[in-house]
Amino acid sequence: MSVDNGSNGLLIVLSGPSGVGKGTVRDELFRVNDNIIYSVSITTRQPRKGETDGKDYFFSSKNNFFKMIENNELLEWAEVYGNYYGTPRQFVEKNLENGKDVILELDIQGALQVQDSFPEGVFIFLLPPSISELKERIKRRGTEAKEDLDKRLGAAKEEIYIAREYHYVIVNKEVNSSASTINSIIQAEKCKFNRYGEELIKEVIKK
Ligand code: 5GP
């Protein structure tokens, strides 16, 4: 279900500490809203077991990644936990023009860059119920070595304060409920007068 307001799509940025459940919430969101499309990031990190190139990430060499930066092909990029991550620009711009709502899953550095280039975006931060629950979730995922787990938990404590820079904050207690909250936010944002109101009035008057 999606409100059909405005000719351009909405840019949604989702952030939250590693292990908070962004991927699962995103999958559930796609189930309830078929106008949203995910922008697959490019990364220099090695694929995890079960990850597919082109679906989870575009896995890339550092050389290729830096070439893309040089050619202005990335909307934003950042170094996170020793690897590089970035958003291919063309995909996002093309889909927004075509009226699709595009969701980006970014670390806080990337999100702050997008706030500068797309101030009209909707910025949502996903919080874990607690740090101990976050630790359990990362352990359960079982994809990180002990050293990486400590790195990610240390970063999480700092990242959480940056939630203040976002428009919305959601505690991810339960996947379905978080996805449904995000969907409600998207629909409400589409009805904000200063977003599409003038365009809608003109359309109605014409008919
Ligand atoms: P992971 O290695 O766990 O897949 O991702 C590590 C972090 O990088 C997560 O916080 C994730 O949201 C972030 N990330 C994923 N893709 C991008 C991207 O394109 N740009 C930025 N800035 N961060 C990203």
Bound molecules: guanosine-5'-monophosphate
The helix content is 40-55%
Distance between the termini: 25 Å
Number of strands: 9
Mean pLDDT: 93
Largest sheet: 5 strands, parallel
* β-sheet strand percentage: 15-25%
Radius of gyration: 18 Å
Shape: globular
Known CATH architecture of the domain at 11-39 and 100-206 = 3-Layer(aba) Sandwich
CATH class of the domain at 11-39 and 100-206 reads Alpha Beta
The class by helix and strand makeup works out as: alpha/beta
Looking at this protein, list some descriptive labels:
207 residues; alpha/beta; Rossmann fold; five-stranded parallel sheet; four-stranded mixed sheet; 8 helices; 45% helix; globular; binds guanosine-5'-monophosphate
Structural notes for this entry:
The chain has 207 residues and is α/β, with parallel strands linked by helices. The protein has a domain at 11-39 and 100-206: Rossmann fold. 45% of the residues lie in helices and 19% in strands. The protein has eight helices and nine strands. It has helices at 22-32, 62-70, 89-97, 108-117, 131-141, 146-159, 175-190, 193-206; strands at 11-15, 36-38, 42-43, 58-59, 74-80, 83-88, 101-105, 122-127, 168-171. The strands form two sheets. A five-stranded parallel beta sheet has the order 2-7-1-8-9, sandwiched between helices. Bound molecules: guanosine-5'-monophosphate (5GP). Residues 18, 41, 45, 76, 78, 80, 85-87, 105-107, 109-110 line the site of guanosine-5'-monophosphate.
